[in-house]
């Protein structure tokens, strides 16, 4: 859905707050786990987000009935601020990410993993926004992300579903090659 600037960017305020709460909960246990283990759990979850991002984009955003319509609108008007309201993203994060992770790994590791997943999500939101609205320096990470994503917009069903990394597109054979047109990269 099309959003106001406040609505679109509110995730950059909400999710860091949620990450902070999740990280602080990891230390509420009486027997605080090893900080190295918590840090590794956090980092593994950040990496794990890249796989979730790939699956969400490839499967849900392009094939789920309601989500695919919203995502199609994004493809039609890539510079519009189209997305999920932050309250819905936050609710989904609590129900689909935090609750299962805490139930599986306990409060300490579960909240460390939740903080990692939310950090990965924030990175995705940032990179996706930058891909459509910034003109990064040629050769930089954001420039490469922008050109990869522009190729996806040229042929959305074919590939380049990863926004923050091309790793899963390599693994699953959905990496697109070639040069994106200037019209799409600046869109």
Comma- or semicolon-separated keywords:
187 residues; mainly alpha; 8 helices; globular; disordered C terminus
Give structural notes.
By secondary structure, the protein is mostly helical. The protein has one domain (5-185). The protein is 71% helix and 0% strand. The chain has eight helices and no strands. The chain has helices at 5-9, 11-25, 35-63, 65-76, 86-133, 141-154, 167-172, 182-185. It is globular, with a radius of gyration of 17 Å. Mean pLDDT is 83; it is low at 181-187.
In short:
The protein is mainly α and 187 residues long.
> Termini separation (Å)?
18 Å
Assembly annotation: single chain
Radius of gyration computed on alpha carbons: 17 Å
Helix tally equals 8
Q: Give the low-pLDDT segments.
A: 181-187
Characterize the main sheet: none
Strand fraction: under 5%
Portion of residues in helices?
Answer: over 70%
Blueprint of the fold:
Elements: H1 5-9, H2 11-25, H3 35-63, H4 65-76, H5 86-133, H6 141-154, H7 167-172, H8 182-185
């Amino acid at each position: 859905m099309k959003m106001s600037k406040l609505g679109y960017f509110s995730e950059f305020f909400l999710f860091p707050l949620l990450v902070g709460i999740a990280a602080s909960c990891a230390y509420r246990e009486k027997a605080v786990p090893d900080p190295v283990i918590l840090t590794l759990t956090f980092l593994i979850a950040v990496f794990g987000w890249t796989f979730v991002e790939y699956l969400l984009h490839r499967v849900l955003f392009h094939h789920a009935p309601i989500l695919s319509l919203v995502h199609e609108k994004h493809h039609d008007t890539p510079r519009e601020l189209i997305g999920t309201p932050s309250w819905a993203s936050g609710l989904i994060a609590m129900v689909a990410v935090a609750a299962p992770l805490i139930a599986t790994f306990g409060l300490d590791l579960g909240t460390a993993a939740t903080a990692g997943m939310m950090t990965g999500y924030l990175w995705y939101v940032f990179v996706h926004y930058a891909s459509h609205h910034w003109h990064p320096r040629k050769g930089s990470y954001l420039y490469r992300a922008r050109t990869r994503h522009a190729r996806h917009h040229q042929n959305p069903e074919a590939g380049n579903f990863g926004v923050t990394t091309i790793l899963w597109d390599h693994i699953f054979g959905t990496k697109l090659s070639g040069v994106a047109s200037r019209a799409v990269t600046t869109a």
